[in-house]
Amino acid sequence: MGRPPILPPASEMFRDLALGKYKDKASIAKAYGVTKSAVTKALAPYEEGKIDYRALMPWDFKVPTDAYNARPARMLRLHLKAQLQNHTLTQKEADDHHHWIASLADRTLAYSMDERWHYVPRTHEHKGLVAVLPVGVELPAETVSLYERIEAG
Description:
Shape: globular
Strand order of the largest sheet: 1-2
Distance between the termini: 39 Å
């Protein structure tokens, strides 16, 4: 079964870094009693320039460009960046993210093979998510948490 994880999800560590709770990876390592290399390894797939947005978007796209062309997809990628690397957002990105999150008060982003990226009315089942996640796809809790509606700083 393996050892349980000692470190929190990567999204939580990035948030804590962005909020100044931790100064750097070494301070995270010290707080959790692990090596700095363990923290570096846990964060590596998500670091700037290395975020694989398609890996975090669990939809089966009709064509590869479906994930990148539409404005809703761009806003979803911006949201993922805000969740993982809020401290790297430009002022324009932060403003765009703030306005997009506000626009989701009564709607949720969805993807289907026929309609591609589109908005649907928000329901109770959507809870605080910015996008309707695919039915039947099991995602790790840290990935699901990236889709929660947060207010950009």
